[in-house]
Known about the structure:
With 141 residues, the chain is mostly beta strands. Helices cover 0% and strands 53% of the residues.
Amino acid sequence: MPPPAFQKSPALAPTTSGDGLWTSQPTVTHDGVDAARSGAIGNNQASTMQVSVTGPAELAFWWRVESEATFDFLNVSLDGGAPIDRISGTVEWAEKRITIPAGAHIVRWSYTKDGSVATGADAGWIDQVTLGAAQPPPPPP
């Protein structure tokens, strides 16, 4: 059974790796149920969670972070490339949508720390992950 953060998309089976494993927790959530939280890590470490998706599709999720601003980040990337987006500092719940191109892909969330300082909970959270049909392009003007 997928973690509650993935309950609306049970076909998405997340895996976790790195220096600290992501876990399901009921304390900090967007939907009031549960959310995935990055693992406890030290300086120069990372906690990673990923899912396999097939496009074309749109992946939507809510994310939040409490970290050392501009040094520790919650990143999201596609197929191991550079981050599509990242958040840092104290960022309350925000929705993010990613367009997934045709074919098989890996979406990866990583909470990464630099060499010093811990701020706030020093963690990232992901909640309400859904995979839906790709949105059609807007009509030409």
